[in-house]
């Protein structure tokens, strides 16, 4: 697939079967919004920015994946509702969140490599999608267990530790 990579690279051919993660570009200190980036994608640990829209990049990656006999990219949504595409076979989830992390549209999370993404889908939905795409489906904790763990961690945080005893 061909992308218009920024900053300063221009047109580049990327193997869509190697794409781990695609999402809308979020302005950061390391790249100016003036470059016109619309998409952030990962082939490894380093982000790549390009001018094509995220859905276009995902479609091109899926074309490469289909030609290689691979499943299409999995899709979930960020807390603000923007789609996130990822290599489901290389993912695991749902990643368990602390009670304080479940807020503002965040209901669950998944991991691809070292990248953890918080999403608006429920842990059950993340589990089903990850499993259907060949990833590592982690067990879903019951709601009462999540509350108990949160209370217990809060209690542990108030305890003093005594070194050398």
General description of the model:
- With 165 residues, this protein is an alpha+beta fold.
- It is built from three helices and eleven strands; from the N terminus they run E-E-E-E-E-H-E-E-E-E-E-H-E-H.
- The strands form two sheets. It has a seven-stranded antiparallel β-sheet, sandwiched between helices. It has a four-stranded mixed β-sheet with strand order 10-9-8-11.
- Strand 4 and strand 5 form a beta hairpin.
- It is globular and about 50 Å long.
How would you briefly describe this protein structure?
The chain has 165 residues and is an alpha+beta fold. The protein contains three helices and eleven strands, in the order E-E-E-E-E-H-E-E-E-E-E-H-E-H. The longest helix is centred in the C-terminal third of the chain and has 16 residues.
Q: Any idea what the shape is?
A: globular
Spatially, the strands of the biggest sheet line up as: 2-1-5-4-3-7-6
Largest beta-sheet characterization: 7 strands, antiparallel
What count of helical segments does DSSP give? 3
| Structure class | alpha+beta
Tell me roughly what share of residues is in helical segments.
10-25%
How far do the termini sit from each other? 61 Å
The low-confidence parts are 159-165
> Which whole number gives the mean pLDDT?
87
Total number of strands: 11
Element-level helix/strand string = EEEEEHEEEEEHEH
């Amino acid at each position: 697939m061909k992308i218009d990579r920024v900053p300063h690279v221009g047109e580049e051919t990327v193997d869509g079967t190697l794409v781990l993660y695609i999402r809308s570009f979020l302005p950061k200190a390391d790249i100016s919004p003036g470059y016109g980036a619309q998409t952030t994608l990962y082939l490894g640990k380093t982000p790549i920015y390009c001018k094509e829209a995220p859905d276009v990049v995902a479609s091109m990656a899926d074309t490469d994946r289909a030609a290689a006999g691979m499943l299409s990219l999995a899709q979930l949504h960020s807390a603000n509702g923007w789609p996130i595409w990822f290599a489901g076979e290389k993912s695991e989830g749902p990643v368990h969140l602390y009670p304080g992390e479940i807020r503002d549209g965040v209901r669950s999370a998944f991991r691809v490599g070292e990248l953890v993404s918080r999403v608006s889908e429920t842990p059950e939905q993340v589990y089903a999608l990850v499993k259907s795409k060949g990833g590592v489906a982690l067990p879903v904790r019951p709601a009462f267990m999540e509350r108990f763990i949160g209370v217990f961690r809060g209690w542990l945080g108030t305890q003093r530790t005594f070194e050398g005893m």
